[in-house]
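RECORD TYPE: inverse folding
INPUT: structure tokens
STRUCTURE:
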């Protein structure tokens, strides 16, 4: 069902359930994501798989779907000889696929257009380090064309997600200024600091003066980071928090497999909500089953 009101209005009333890891569901559907474009490749090659993955999360109870544009960039598609005009269409398609999946739901479903970090384009894990060697102006010029293309597709919100450091946060905020679409800003963190080691309170404070930022928080991090980060985000910014951590497993690059224990517990959802989170979901290795359990524990997104 298409939403009947802006996302910010809904967040003022209750917590909403985000989806989980899109790539995990695509793999479960048998998709090969070994390409540098990751899930974005399917925007060109098999968009039906992306819509089906979104639909799986809708069925699980997700009320906000994050698009397959995390790793979709003009530069990345150019490596496959896809020109700028077609890339713009593919970015718009990412929003359309999520919208179509949401329209079949009995509940309201909002669409968040993913704006991943520069490190996602590099496809080498740089988003977990930051400090790419580019200044804020260079990063802004990289992000702005994609922001403009996604904003033109009219999502309900732009998700500036998995941001590793304050330099990139500043660039993303500059690139989105005046775009006409509300946004959330979500850092990837470790040990209560940005991945680049910066003070998280100072990182959250960058949204001061930006009325279009409707939520601030963390994603693609250990679950144990979520509660304190949510509380800090609310205290520093006065905005609702967004939290969608990973399963707790870690990627072993040498062995090319996930290792460690799953510690993501959907039963933590009410605690995250009590800390101020109003957008609550999962990231890597958190699939529809855990999102369904999260939705159940939150009462379908109730207070």
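DESIGNED SEQUENCE:
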């Amino acid at each position: 069902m298409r939403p009947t009101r802006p996302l910010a209005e809904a967040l003022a009333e209750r917590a909403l359930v985000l989806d989980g890891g899109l790539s995990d569901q695509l793999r479960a559907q048998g998709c090969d994501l070994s390409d540098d474009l990751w899930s974005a490749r399917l925007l060109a090659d098999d968009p039906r798989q992306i819509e089906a993955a979104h639909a799986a999360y809708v069925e699980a109870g997700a009320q906000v779907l994050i698009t397959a544009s995390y790793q979709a960039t003009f530069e990345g598609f150019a490596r496959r000889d896809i020109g700028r005009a077609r890339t713009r269409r593919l970015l718009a398609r990412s929003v359309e696929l999520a919208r179509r999946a949401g329209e079949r739901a009995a509940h309201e479903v909002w669409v968040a257009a993913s704006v991943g970090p520069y490190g996602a384009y590099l496809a080498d894990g740089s988003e977990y380090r930051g400090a790419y060697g580019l200044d804020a102006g260079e990063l802004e010029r990289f992000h702005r064309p994609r922001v403009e293309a996604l904003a033109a597709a009219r999502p309900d919100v732009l998700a500036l997600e998995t941001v590793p450091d304050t330099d990139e946060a500043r660039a993303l905020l500059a690139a989105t200024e005046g775009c006409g679409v509300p946004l959330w800003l979500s850092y990837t963190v470790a040990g209560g600091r940005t991945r680049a080691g910066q003070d998280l309170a100072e990182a959250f404070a960058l949204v001061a003066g930006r009325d279009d930022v409707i939520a601030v928080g963390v994603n693609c991090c250990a679950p144990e980071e979520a509660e304190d980060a949510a509380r800090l985000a609310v205290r520093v910014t006065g905005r609702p928090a967004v939290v969608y951590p990973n399963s707790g497993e870690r990627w072993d690059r040498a062995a090319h497999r996930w290792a460690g224990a799953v510690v993501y517990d959907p039963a933590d959802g009410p605690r995250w909500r009590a800390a101020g989170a109003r957008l609550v979901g999962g990231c890597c290795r958190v699939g529809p089953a855990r999102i369904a359990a999260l939705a159940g524990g939150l009462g379908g997104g109730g207070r």
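NOTES: The mean pLDDT is 95.
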